[in-house]
Amino acid sequence: MSSSSRFKRPKKPRKARTLTHEKLEEWLGSRGNPMPGVSMIDGYLAALVVSPQFIPPEEWLRPIVGEGIAWAPDGSMEEVVRNTIFQRYSQIGATLSGGPKRYAPIYMRTDDGEVLLEQFANGFYLGMRRSIDDWKPHISNPEIGRPLTAILGHCTTMMPEDQRQRALQGQATEVLAQSWQVVPELIEMLHVRLAGARNVEIR
């Protein structure tokens, strides 16, 4: 008997099962307790990736999806959901770090194709709040703070809605209506500008 026959070849690591964005949205919408949608989760993940302070997954997963998904057992549907979220987090990071494709946010759209940025913006702000003290010096920098309003101007959780609407009167409303088009470029800029704070080298 040859020595090679005594040992079994190691099995390849099991590929993590994931969902499409459409299936994930459907599953999240079917939960009894209100769950964030895919666009809100995507904004949340984008803020974490570009954040001036690295936040480990064990600290950011529960605030967005809860204990049931964060600690889901292997083989459960909740584990598949968790895998899908981690996959998207890694995808955003790889894309912003020089991947072959440009970063593309996941937006909600109406049946007529109108882009709705509110949920993405709410998720982004929620992600910022995980390390808001680290964000504050950068927000006060006009070169970062002003472009950032293209996202935060759509956020419905930062201030009461009546105050937000008053702040958006006049030309600002028209500008923000098209701001979804510049969000990919803005996220890429934030990733590069905040890399020094994260001690990350952008190649």
TrEMBL record:
Pfam families: UPF0149. It comes from the Bacteria. InterPro entries: YgfB-like, YgfB-like_sf. SUPFAM superfamilies: YgfB-like. This is UPF0149 family protein. The lineage of its organism: Bacteria, Pseudomonadati, Pseudomonadota, Alphaproteobacteria, Sphingomonadales.
